[in-house]
Amino acid sequence: MADAIFENQRLADVYDPLDPDRSDLDLYLGLAERFGARSVLDIGCGTGTFALLLAERGIEVTGVDPAGASLTVARRKPGAERVRWIHGDAPSLPPMDVDMATMTANVAQVFVTDEEWSATLAAAHRSLRPGGHLVFETRDPRRAAWRRWTKEHTYRRVEVPGVGWVEEWNELLEVRGDLVSFESFVVFESGAEVLTSDSTLRFRGQDEVTASLETAGFTVAEVLDAPDRPGREFVFVAIR
Fold it and tell me: Which CATH number does the domain housing residue 221 bear?
């Protein structure tokens, strides 16, 4: 089940305006070009920003996500008809043979159990052609990013067209081993409505991720730095 921030329609509708800087996607676009990808599976496509950027470049794209509200936002966007949208998770995907599979932003960290992560990697492996690439990012646990998940460091206030002023921030709830839980707050000033969403992410180390990829049948080709978060994330490039 998707978190409320993606599944609640009112929260999904303001997701993009509250996080408009998607320069993190530039690396993925560059890798798709470098690999000559003509077809891409975007796992956890959310509101469709990356899928639509690929489609604008003439790439055949399938976007899959379990959050129906996020997909509703994606399907409303200009050019959405160019993308094949699937409401569901990666293990339930129909057969396909794509050049590249991606998990951008926090997607790889939402699979908190070994079973969920293994099933997702297996689905990506099945969906790729031989020699195809899986690309995703995950935060380096040594940097303990969660220490700054406080209102002081995450607060923003944005005027959203048609909605009014919206406030957002995160608050750390718990760190339990490699699992980090936090609560997101979204305040709609018009009507003084406050909506919250609880999330848990898993922070896997580089060696653990590498081992899981090899078990799933991948070869790790590169581990890159994320240009938008230098020194804080691993970007894995694996080959089927």
Answer: 3.40.50.150
